[in-house]
Amino acid sequence: MQAVSAAAPAARGSVLPPRESSRGGVGVRVEQVWDEVRGSLRDQIGAENYNIWIQPIRITAADDARVALWVPNRYFRDWVRENYGTRLTEEFRARLGTNVTIEFQIGTRNGDPAAPSPDARPASPEEFPDDEVADASATSPDPASTAGAPTHSIAAQPPAMGEIPGVATDKTFDNFVVGACNQFAHAAALAVAERPGDKQYNPLFIYGSTGLGKTHLMHAIGNAMHQANRDARVVYCTAERFTNQLIEALRYRRMPDFRDRYRKNTDILLVDDIQFLSGKERTQEELFHTFEHLREHGKQIVFTADVLPREIDGLEPRLRTRCESGMIADMQPPDMETMLAILNQKAEDMGMPLERDLAQWIATRLRGSIRELEGVLNRLDALRRMAGGRMPNIETARQHLVNILPQAPAPPTAEEIIGTVANFYGLKVSDLKGSRRLKQIVRPRHVAMYLVRTHTDLSFPDIGRAFGGKDHATVQHACKKIVRLLEKEPDLRNAVENIERMLLR
Asked: What gap in Å lies between CA 436 and CA 10, rounded to an integer?
């Protein structure tokens, strides 16, 4: 069948796309539709993702019921299906005007597309099941179990950096902010990446509440291992995905392929959120035997969960004891200092450094979840784009974020802040509210005004009234001065942070 566009050069380890042929093609109309679909996807996912995942695809057949797309290998197919399958189907349906489904054809060594297996369910916007796993078995399956399926086998090729299915390339050790809350887990993850299979760290079990960075560490391990060894076979999945793939393997009698993927073709297995295996006896049994096989052969296993293994209801004792047999590391909610560091780093990575008072205001309302923090930054980025690239000031940010940010627990009042600052500096509250301009009073007064501005919703005039009737210009000047000095004077910065810790206990 005729390819829609000129074939791109074959990627390392891939097979060639379908050859152009004079036997007829998919039709001019379908070629036009495919060009439109690709153009739309390019706009949606960006040029880099488009060039990696969409450009190599070739359309090989189309009618009112289905569209057949050629992909170079199973790794590629699984990634496209999971990440772009719904979009592809919706784009084709919108343009063809029919309820088409998508079938993926995997290339063969001679360059012709393999016929799709008739028992494999087609992709649809509602569901994209993993009817096969990412790697085909290198052994020959039972012929009865593969009737109508391709007879060839494509050996698993180690993916290039950035092509490990499910592993985000932007989650690395370099951009993981380390604090007292996660220091041990970070050190353990780093040890695994440097010495995979070390008995002391095998398995590594990382646990903690949602949104604390467990998945980031898991992805960082995968990226570090693959960067150090391009041939490292890194397999990442969630417990839910492992379960779904097992169900599909049982349904389509592909268990040899499933087991090869997770056992023979794996150097490190990363399984996220294993608390979702609770009560799934068949899945736990398969994971147990996979665990035993991998560890027996010196391969590394990493698990994450919300709680300790013994606290996962419905986890079989033998699997629980395996989880407890290596290194267990917990992750706690970040303290204020760590949260600020994470917030500022992520903001800088997005090209929008935050003013300190805005960062402080956000951090006080996000004491736990880094995932929520990322959502807040996405909202700020949208506001910035709407304003032509200008960062919103704290008033604008508060207006747009107040409904999505959790309310800070028992925020300090102006009086509480003034009293805390007075105690910290060994002064009286009346000194801060008064008009004396002694050096030992003016600086603490300015600090108190700055902290009231940062930790309350009071306006400049309201703050002025709280300080004995100062005008708003005086308060505004004091706040700006402290912000400027905080960048230059470490002693002042330490003092302010100590006061904040006292306020937020």
From this structure: 77
Give the CATH number of domain 1-129; options: 3.40.1190.20, 3.30.70.2970, 3.30.300.180, 3.20.20.20. 3.30.300.180
The larger pLDDT score, comparing residue 5 to residue 308, is at 308
Rounded to whole angstroms, how far apart are CA atoms 95 and 98?
8
Torsional sign, CA 341, 346, 347, 353: positive
Asked if 257 contacts 141 with a C-beta cutoff of 8 angstroms, the reply is yes
CA distances, 461 to each of 119, 163, 363, 447 (Å): 72, 55, 25, 17
- The three-state secondary structure class of 236 is strand
Q: Which of 185, 156, 485 is nearest to 332 (CA)?
A: 185
Residue 280 sits at φ, ψ, to 5 deg, of -95, 85
Q: What angle do CA 370, 372, 376 make, to 5 degrees?
A: 115
**420 Cβ contact list (under 8 Å, min separation 6):** 412, 499, 502, 503
Beta bridge partners of 71: 106
- What does 38-67 look like in DSSP terms, one character per residue? HHHHHHHH-HHHIIIIITT-EEEEE-SSEE
- For the stretch 69-104, pLDDT in tens is 988 777 678 778 888 888 898 888 888 888 888 998
> Could you write out the three-class secondary structure of 406-442?
CCCCCCCCHHHHHHHHHHHHCCCHHHHHCCCCCHHHH
- Ranges of beta strands (E only) in 137-208 are 204-208
pTM for the predicted model, two decimal places:
0.53
Q: What is the pLDDT of residues 403-455, one digit of tens each?
A: 777 665 567 899 999 999 999 999 999 999 998 889 899 999 999 999 999 88
Task: Spell 96-108 as b/e; 16+ CB within 10 A means b.
Answer: beeebbbbbbbbb
Return all residues near 118 (Cβ < 8 A) that are at least 6 apart.
148
Burial 71-82, CB ≥16 within 10 A → b, else e: bbbbbbbbbbbe
Closest CA to 71 of 167, 150, 170: 150
Cβ neighbourhood burial of 409 (10 Å; 0-12, 13-18, 19+): exposed
**CATH value of 336-401 in 2.40.160, 1.10.3430, 1.10.8, 2.40.128:** 1.10.8
Q: Round to whole Å and give the CA distance between 54 and 57.
A: 6
> Which residues, in sequence order, are bridge partners of residue 251?
none
